[in-house]
Amino acid sequence: MANKVLIFTKRVLPLSNTFVAAQGNNLPSFEPVYIGLRNSQAGISLIEGRATCVQEEHENMPLVSKLLLDGFGHVRPGWKNALGNLSASLIHAHFGKGGYYCAPIAKSLNLPLLTTFHGSDITQKDKFSYNKKHRKIAYEQSSKIIAVSSFIEQKLLAGGCPPDKIIQHYTGIDTDYFSPSGERNAVPTILFVGRLIEQKGCQYLIEAFATVQKKLPEAKLIIAGNGNYKDTLQGMANGNKDISFVGAQNRAQVKALMSKAWLTCLPSVRMRRGNEEGMATVCMESQAVGTPVVAFNTGGVGEGVEHGETGLLSPERDVEPLAENLLVLLTSDTLRERFCEAGVGRARTLFNIKTQCQTLEKIYRQLC
C-alpha cells in the first residue's frame, strides 16, 4: 500500500494552484489526498480521480469550524476523524498560512508537517493572513520549510525562519506535457498569461506594445486571465483591435497559446506591500514549449529565466527597455530560435517535475 500525503490548500482547488496539482499528481509512490477548508470547482478537474477530504463536507457548521481553526488552532472532531481515518504519513501544506492552519492538525494526528512558501506569503508585509504570528507558528511547527526559489529562501531567512529547516526546491512543471509543438502564429504575437491584478504588471506591457506597434504594425498582443484590474487594462487598450482579452484559460488552452506565441511577457512588479513573484510557473512553462520570455527582473524571475540565454530581463516598471527587448526578439528569428532551443533544454534540466518529485519524496521519507 502506498504511503499517503495530505496536501493542503485553503480551497480545493483554485485554478491558480495548478502547480499544486501538478506536483501532487506526479509523486512517484506517495498517494496524494487533497485537503482544505472549502471546495472550489475552478480547478477541481486538475485533480479528477484523486481523493479529497474537505472540512466543509465533514462539519455541520463549517464556518464555525474554520473560525475555531483560524483563531484558536482547534480542529473539530468531524474533520479530524475523517483525516485520521486516511492513515496518512505526513501533511504537506502549501503557502505560509496553510502551514499555520495545518500546525494543529499535524499535532492532533501526530504527523510531520512540511510547509512550502511560494511568494507573497513571505514577501508581503501588512496583510493579516501573512503576519508574523502565522509565519512564526508555521516555522515552529513545520519539520521542514520548502522555498520555491533561492529568492524565497533569502526572504525566509530575513523573516526569521530557522536556517536548518529551509530546503530550496523548485516545484517544476510537466515537461512531457509542456513540450514544443512546432506551431507558430503567422504574425508576431506576444502572450501575457496571469491574473489581471496590478502586481502582474500587464499595464506596462500594454504601454510597451504601443511602441512595438510603431515599428511592427502587424504585431498582436494576447492577454489571458481575469482579475480586478481587467477594466483598467481594457481602458488602456482603448479598443486596439490588435490586443485581445481572452479571459481565464485552462491548462490545454494555455499550452496552445504559448506554443503559438512568438514570446511570452511577464512584467510583474514588486508592490509597496512587498508582494513579489516567488518563482513564476509561466516562465517555466513557456520555455518548456520553446517560447522565449521577456520579463521584468523581479523576485525569483531571474531564476526562472536566464537573461541572454532563454529570454531577456529589464528593470521593473521601466517601459522603454521592456519595449526594446520585445522588439529585439520579435525582429530576430536567429536569436528567437537560439533562445527557444536553450529554454527547452533548461526547463528539462532544472524544472522537470518528475525529477523534482523524486527529490521531494526523499524529503517526505526523511520526515516520515
Describe this structure in words.
Residues 78-176 form the Glycosyltransferase subfamily 4-like N-terminal domain. It holds the Pfam family Glycos_transf_1. By secondary structure, this protein is an alpha/beta fold. The chain has two domains: 4-172 and 352-367, Glycogen Phosphorylase B (Rossmann fold), CATH 3.40.50.2000; 189-350, Glycogen Phosphorylase B (Rossmann fold). It is built from 15 helices and 15 strands. Helix 9 (230-237) links the parallel strand 11 and strand 12 (243-247).
Please sum up the structure shown.
InterPro entries: Glyco_trans_1 (IPR001296), Glyco_trans_4-like_N (IPR028098), Glycosyltransferase_grp1 (IPR050194). The chain is an alpha/beta fold and 368 residues long.
Radius of gyration, in Å, reads 21 Å
| Sheet having the most strands | 7 strands, parallel
Number of helices: 15
The fourth-level CATH homologous superfamily of the largest domain is Glycogen Phosphorylase B
Strand percentage: 15-25%
What is the CATH C-level name of the largest domain?
A: Alpha Beta
- Measured as a percent range, the helix fraction is 40-55%
Domain Glycosyltransferase subfamily 4-like N-terminal: 78-176
Domain Glycosyl transferase family: 180-343
Pfam family, one: Glyco_transf_4
GO molecular function: glycosyltransferase activity
